[in-house]
Write a structure and sequence with these properties.
Layout lengths: L3 E4 L8 H20 L3 H19 L9 H12 L5 H15 L7 H10 L3 E6 L3 H10 L8 E4 H4 L6 H11 L6 E5 L2 H10 L3 E5 L14 E3 L5 H8 L13
Parallel strand pairs: 1-2, 1-4, 2-3, 4-5, 5-6
Length: 244
């Protein structure tokens, strides 16, 4: 019996990759006009500083997503004023937020699950501040019962600490929680490893390894109530539970 549904955020609730392209282009243009780089130089420097940062702190903490640190490291190497770094960070995130498009069926699906009595959570890598901004932009903040970020638990998916925190906040057994995400390695495998049910959100065919036994694939968020009905026979296709 599923009692709680936990969503990954980036590339599940919206296309991070699409929004990131706009954001990265905006910062690249800023670098060309304000820092004196070419687009190619900017991209190469960005990747190098991101790798250097990861080598310094490891990969299992939310700080790996901190754009301000990346831009700071870039500006320091270019020997330019540090005041550029917060401007670039703000430009990146505000552009990304402006180009976010919710995944088809997102809000109607969350609303239907909420109305049917399911606890709704978000389990996400990243710092909490920008994830709140994204949820507000998507119009979901008032529909979410709980959020677990990698910043909160000091661990990145697929570390089971993040998933176990989701279970604790859901207030039910691990096997009564369904985790939905776009990554087999991070979301699906991590959830299954914590004893949760798992579903892979893959709106278009792509290669990402074999789907683990016990996990399900959906290509549309609108399929989620029907998928839950496989675990909850008493759930009608319309997404509401039968009264006891």
């Amino acid at each position: 019996m599923i009692k709680a549904v936990v969503f990954d955020l980036d590339d599940t609730m919206y296309s991070y990759q699409n929004a990131h392209r706009y954001a990265f282009q905006a910062v690249s243009s800023y670098a060309v006009h304000q820092l004196g780089t070419t687009p190619e130089q900017f991209e190469a420097l960005y990747k190098r500083k991101m790798s250097e940062h990861l080598a310094r702190i490891g990969s299992n903490c939310s700080a790996i997503h901190n754009r301000l640190i990346r831009f700071q490291l870039m500006v320091e190497e270019l020997r330019l004023p540090l005041s550029h770094a917060p401007v670039m960070e703000s430009l990146y995130w505000r552009t990304l937020l402006a180009h976010m498009e919710p995944s088809p069926g997102l809000k109607e699906t969350v609303e239907a699950l909420k109305a049917a009595g399911y606890r709704i959570g978000v389990g996400t890598n990243m710092t909490a501040d920008w994830q709140y901004e994204k949820l507000e932009r998507l119009g979901l903040l008032d529909l979410i019962d709980f959020l677990v970020s990698s910043e909160e638990v000091n661990a990145e998916k697929p570390d089971r600490r993040l998933f176990l925190a989701c279970v604790e906040k859901a207030g039910c057994l691990a096997q009564e929680c369904l985790f939905l995400g776009d990554s087999i390695a991070h979301d699906v495998a991590g959830a299954l490893g914590a004893g949760m049910q798992a579903a892979w959100y893959a709106p278009s065919p792509r290669l990402e390894g074999a789907l683990p036994e016990g996990a399900q694939r959906i290509s549309s968020l609108r399929q989620l109530p029907q998928l839950i009905a496989q675990w909850n026979p008493s759930v009608r296709k319309g997404g509401s539970k039968d009264e006891a």
